[in-house]
Amino acid sequence: MEWVNAVVQGTLLGGLYALFAAGLSLIFGVMRLVNIAHGDMIVLGAYLGLSVTAILGIHPLMALIIVVPCMAVIGYVLQRSILNQTLGGDLLPPLLVTFGLSVILQNALLEIYTADPQKMNAGSLETASVSVGGLSLGVLPLLTFAIAVAVIAALQWTFYRTALGRAFRATSDNQEIAQLMGLNRRHIFGLAMALALGVTAIAGIMLGIRTSFDPSIGGGRLIFGFEAVIIGGLGNLWGTLAGGVILGVAQTVGAKIDPGWQLLAGHLVFLAILAVRPNGLFPRISG
Amino acid sequence: MPDPILHISGLEAHYGDFQALYGVDLEVAEGEVLAIIGANGAGKTTLLRSISGLTQNDAAMVEYRGEGIGALRADEVAKRGVALVPEGRQLFPSLSVEENLIIGGQIGRKGPWSLEAVYKLFPILKERRAQQSTSLSGGQQQMVAIGRALMANPDLILFDEISLGLAPIIIKDIYAALPGIIGEGMSALIVEQDISKALSVSSRFYCLQEGRVSLNGPSATVAREDISRAYFGVE
Fold it and tell me: How many domains does chain B have?
């Protein structure tokens, strides 16, 4: 039963990792941009949530209504003003620029919020649990997982059922021809980054409710996000959710074997999958 | 001649580091079909890229309906009613056949072309509409590429080598469909290596040779020897 419990808890944890990864996956899918600052943007989302709850005195989940659009605007402006200039044939400039952004963000957060760990207070939600077949499941992890599934489903729907998604896929396929269709790729990329940071805001707030955070933890979240994306296969959003779940389960099962193995087990499973299936488990079938 | 829809004057354009066009002058009248012929590397594709905005030059070098569009981006040119059927078709592989067509119409210009109209022109595409665009045969892909451009309801449509890499029977079909396409009052510019095909559907032609216009005139009356001379540069 304890093992079943570990697997179930890991699955729920995987929901959080999928939220970390979704924005990363989306940005890479649309514009082949590897965003090294993604983890710090998750942390930025958490801090924005903290400020909003502190100033307005509202529940962290209500803060989503403000933080998600804020992050989306930040994403659009960031893309149009800086990141678009770095995109071209070469992968290195966007890597370097987002690495720089990561350093800037960390230090700015450190200046504003200090290095003290912070946490958002979600009241009874944090400790509430339900019993299912002898297992005690936290309401917060369940909610996080449900949100992750909803976010992935919404992104999937946007990608394959809307004009915006069509524009994303077309621009990703062939930027020049997309331009001929009247799509300004700079604007399309801005919208993609806005959407990605909107999702990142959700990830940040769910993170900030679940655990304490400080300005330095972005790098670790970036790694979890990367691993989930790679395990699931690039360009496949449901794969990203599966990747998050596999990573989460590996960590909790690892921790069950030996508490010191939690992170190590996750990384080992990631490496094993990378060795056996270099394209991830569910790579997008390319045309 | 009625007012030109497109007026190109002294167009100097580059293809990468290489200068591809040297002072090209060219005019397309409203409703006219113009053929551009020339050998490989004569600058035909660069000419179309310059008109469509994929290659940006000085604004005044390309005038469309009296407006200098030479320096605009491709999406801005497209919104003004210029569509390009690119060489090699270049469909979007992640989009289905129907999505490829819809995205062509997303620009929102009004006119006779719609999904139904394109399906009426190319019925096979309706059968294949849910398929991945890259799963089609070359000829069907070319139909999608043409349909995609038509969906924008352009006033000026540019065809770049639409017969390239297709079987002769398919080329015949596509050229048979052309009058129905251009008959809607559209102006067209057809770049083609197959000279007789190009001359048969156009009213006038321009021959490019090493980035310069070497000959132009009415397609119906031009002498073969003149064309070979202008085409190959043999005196």
Answer: 1
| Residue-wise pLDDT tens digits, B88-124 | 999 999 999 999 999 999 998 999 999 999 999 999 9
**At B234, is the pLDDT very low, low, confident or very high (cuts 50, 70, 90)?**
low
pLDDT digits (tens, 9 = 90+) for B3-21: 799 999 999 998 888 899 9
Interface test with A, best of B72, B75, B79, B141 (most A CBs within 10 A): B75
B204-225 tens-digit pLDDT? 999 999 999 999 999 998 888 8
Q: Residue A173 is nearest to which of B54, B93, B104, comparing CB atoms?
A: B93
Q: At what angle do helices A163-173 and A185-210 cross, to 10 degrees?
A: 110
Give me the interface pTM, i.e. the ipTM. 0.91
Best CATH choice for the domain A11-122+140-276 from the list 1.10.1240, 1.10.3470, 3.10.20, 2.60.40: 1.10.3470
Beta sheet of B204-209, edge-to-edge order: B82-85, B156-160, B187-191, B33-38, B204-209, B212-218
User: Which residue in chain A is spatially nearest to B48 when comparing CA positions?
Assistant: A180
Q: Looking at chain B, which residue has its C-alpha nearest residue A173?
A: B92
- What are the angstrom distances between the C-alpha of A156 and each of A5, A12, A227, B56? 30, 20, 20, 36
Residue A205 bridge partners (DSSP): none
Tokens of A239: 């794969």
Specify the CATH number for the domain of residue B200: 3.40.50.300
* Average pLDDT score, chain B: 92
> Which residues on chain B are in Cβ contact (under 8 Å) with A172?
94
Contact of B95 with chain A, judged by CB distance below 8 Å, is answered with yes
CB contact under 8 A, A183 and B73: no
Three-state secondary-structure class, residue B137 = coil
Residue A286: pLDDT band with limits 50, 70, 90: very low
Residue pLDDT, tens place only, A18-64: 999 999 999 998 998 999 999 999 999 999 999 999 999 999 999 99
Which one, of B183, B195, B108, B178, lies nearest residue B143 by Cα?
A: B178
Q: Which domain holds residue B66?
A: 4-232
